[in-house]
Design a protein that fits this description.
The longest helix has 25 residues. The protein is built from 4 helices and 7 strands; from the N terminus they run βααββββββαα. Strand 3 and strand 4 form a beta hairpin. It has a 7-stranded antiparallel sheet with strand order 1-7-6-5-4-3-2. It is an alpha+beta fold and about 140 residues long.
């Protein structure tokens, strides 16, 4: 399942990218994020890992996240693995008219039978979640 979203934030690309990847800001814009635990040395780089717990519609999902591409301020890509699903999330940043455009691309592989059976519902929930998260990100940066 492929999910995509594009958003423009009226702020400098370096500021948007820095806020986006800052672990101290994640709970401010990622809905349902309950916990983040940095693994290893804590330096954000390709190969950096963390554990995240996200609650979505009453279901707690425990992800192990690995940064697969870290190219400030243009690209950030992570692989999220859980028992329920795997997600490859790519975020491409570009400067546009005094602001920053973010293109979100997620490739989702559902693992649990119940999620596969409810694929249309899961898709709708995930699309809504991406839009809400990105709108919170936009609001926090533009009005923070």
């Amino acid at each position: 399942m492929i999910l995509e979203h594009t958003l423009t934030i009226q702020a400098d690309i370096e500021d948007v990218y820095s806020y986006f990847v800052d672990i101290n800001h994640l709970e401010e814009w990622i809905g349902g994020l309950l916990e983040v635990e940095v693994l290893g040395d804590g330096i954000l780089k390709q190969g950096a890992q963390s554990k995240q717990v996200i609650e979505q519609n009453g279901m707690k999902i425990h992800f192990k996240q690995t940064v697969s591409v870290y190219e400030p301020p243009l690209t950030f890509k992570v692989d999220l693995v859980s028992k329920e699903m795997d997600i490859v999330s790519s975020y491409d940043f570009s400067a546009v008219d005094g602001g920053t455009q973010i293109k979100v691309h997620q490739a989702v592989k559902l693992k649990k039978f119940i999620l596969k059976a409810a694929k249309k519902i899961v898709r709708g929930i995930m699309e809504t979640t991406i839009k809400e998260d990105m709108n919170r990100l936009k609001h926090n940066i533009e009005h923070g």
